[in-house]
Amino acid sequence: MTFDAAAWLESATIDPAVLALRPDYRALLITAEGLRPGPSDELSERLLADAESAARERFGDGPVEEHPHLAAWREAFRAFGAKPQRTRPSAEALLRRLPAGLPRVDRLTDIYNAISVGHVIPLGGEDLDHYVGAARLVRAEGDETFETTAGGEPVIEHPAPGEVVWRDDAGATCRRWNWRQCTRTRLTHDTTRAMFVLDALGPMDDTALKAAGDELMRALTEASPGVRIASRLVGAG
């Protein structure tokens, strides 16, 4: 069955209960088909190295959490009961690793991590071949399954009631808005179809959000010539 990217993107929703927490929230969703996965390579290394250099120049030795977009994300985490000093927004967690260098994971993850750091925006990727049904951002009931690992072993966790999570028909795919992705839908060396989520709050306007999305799409096209890309902005306005 042929994947209809436009229809799938149109099925994605943000629950009103989430927008009640942050009316300024927007998500830019990007699907990509025909990706070339694999280990980190020269292209992904170049993108990460450039992002590291730009971020070090931008932040110096200053506290990254004082950046307006990251400060807004900390407020958003507190709004649903998370403690951002313990479970940090994903972009902040990445930027805090700058002194030792950003992780090198695989070429697709490295690409989106470079965009996340370069634009100071939480950004994650999901394997569409393991996604079940529509993407929904909701406040959790608390009985959703979240597949992860602990001590190297697979475990099932459950989000706290009221926690903001991305989910599909099979369970939670990302906990605490953008804190941690599940193992079921993570990108791997076999991923050829993916969905990327770029999370924006008020300090990042739609122009800046579009610029981050455009750079991600350019990088994916360079890494995977012939890739088929579609996108949709959901949320405020």
What does this structure look like?
With 237 residues, the chain is of the alpha+beta class. It is 34% helix and 24% strand. It has seven helices and eleven strands. It has helices at residues 5-11, 16-21, 42-59, 68-79, 90-95, 107-119, 206-223; strands spanning 13-14, 26-33, 123-127, 136-139, 146-150, 153-157, 164-168, 171-175, 180-181, 193-200, 228-235. The protein has a five-stranded mixed sheet. Strands 3-10-2-11 form a four-stranded antiparallel sheet, sandwiched between helices. The chain has a two-stranded antiparallel ribbon with strand order 5-6. α3 (42-59) runs parallel beside α6 (107-119) and α6 runs antiparallel to α7 (206-223). It comes from Streptomyces javensis. Pfam families: B3_4 (PF03483). Residues 71-225 form the B3/B4 tRNA-binding domain. This is B3/B4 tRNA-binding domain-containing protein.
